[in-house]
Amino acid sequence: MKEWNEECAVVGIYNAHNASVLSYYSLFSMQHRGQEASGISASNGQKISTYKNNGLVTKVFNKTILEKLQGKSSIGHNRYSTAGEDSINDSQPIFAKYGLGEIALAHNGNFTNAKEIRESLIQEGAIFQSHLDTENLIHLIAKSHRNHLVDRIKDALTKIRGAYALVFLSRTKMFVVRDQYGLRPLSLGKIKNPDGSTGYIVASESCAFDLIGADYIRDVLPGEMLVFEGAYTNNDVVPQSMQIFPPTPNPCIFEYVYFARPDSKVFGKNVYEIRKQMGVELAKEHKIQADMVIPVPDSGVAAALGYSRESGIPFELGIIRNHYVGRTFIEPTQSMRELKVKLKLNPIAELISGKDIIVIDDSIVRGTTSKQIIKILKQAGAKKIHLFISSPPTISPCFYGVDTPDKSDLICANHSLEEVRDFIGADSLFFLSLEGLKKSINSEENKRFCQACFDGHYIEELTGRKD
Ligand code: AMP
Ligand code: SF4
After folding, report:
1. Whose CB among 21, 170, 225, 302 lies 3.0–4.6 Å from 275's, allowing a Cys bridge?
2. Is the CB of residue 373 below 6 angstroms from any atom belonging to ligand 1?
3. What is the pLDDT of residues 356-387, one digit of tens each?
4. Residue ranges of the domains in the chain?
5. What is the CATH number of domain 271-447?
6. Nearest 5°: phi and psi at 130?
7. Confidence of residue 431 (pLDDT cuts 50, 70, 90)
8. Under the GO molecular function aspect, what terms does this record hold (predicted)?
């Protein structure tokens, strides 16, 4: 069964006027983390209202819908997923009525023991409405005999293994938890309300804070739970912090490589600066002669700037991206994939014709994107194409919430460097080393990262599997 918690974005807003509108803008700024479906739950202190649908944030919501999602607290979710069922039941937030009242929940990550838990819950008579591993959590919370939701959440999470950034909404409170490994990002910010009171935001990426004028405070810590209350009693809201699991930080290094927006601060560091430094390190590791450095837009732009600066080879925007590409209406055959690349990317033939070019992208997964890009560059007359990748070869799948294909489809897991170069059709191919990648990050806070997709070493207690 396909589980639906790949990547995604979550947001939580507490004690703010029009909380659902702030969730909407936050989800809009994090659209890159998931384009399949979007949802918001809001509470007015009496009841929780939820609206979710398939599509982009701007398509799912309008003024009328947001006006119905009233209250000072709200959570939201963007779902990422490119294949399989399109059921609304598989989008989030999940809403349920249970022994203590109402609850809504949004999750970014992946539970590695989801199948086991679901099977045992079904044995005990539970009925599931979705394919979401997150639904397990609702059942575990509903079954717990504790008197307070905070204890029920803690109880339920002791049974869950995996990667999670979670936001829960009850009628009057909001709860936020990050797994003890800190695999998925989650930051805390402050909102200045027009009446002078303070509201709070938690979001997968800090770019959400910028859009709504919130100030970054800090990351939610690995293994930390934050409880927000007071919005409906007119008390000052001060988030209460509890370390519910011992922190063993292993944040996802791939957030820096590809996933996060460059203007976000992720795991305490700005993504753009790190990506640029990856280009610098790439140039230090692999020096060659060429006429120009060209990024694959947008994923290779920052690294290409860094490469150009370090090598002295001029930077050119040799490939132009059409930002308005939505869906293509043709079956996903090989020729459709080619069309998809051409719809999105077009090389400037006058610039690159007859030239030796260095093309920079962030990663190779299946190899199909690189192959298509090289093909259109050759068609546009490039003499030689040297492909530089600002991360190491992706050799293992992710089981912690990033959508990577099975190992059998990861080209670098199954082929030599020379075979990969030959398949994609480049004249030469270079990757940044894992050491170079970590040097680029140079984090004081984080000495360890999850880098399993590059080295195959999964977190022992979580294992490398997805149920
Ligand atoms: P591929 O064609 O499979 O080699 O895909 C590589 C391209 O997809 C790169 O240009 C990346 O920018 C992008 N990419 C890398 N990882 C992911 C991911 N998890 N989800 C979507 N796109 C990705
Ligand atoms: Fe991130 Fe890769 Fe680890 Fe998955 S396996 S959490 S993508 S570093």
Report:
1. 302
2. no
3. 999 999 999 999 999 999 999 999 999 999 99
4. 9-249, 271-447
5. 3.40.50.2020
6. -140, 175
7. very high
8. 4 iron, 4 sulfur cluster binding; amidophosphoribosyltransferase activity; magnesium ion binding
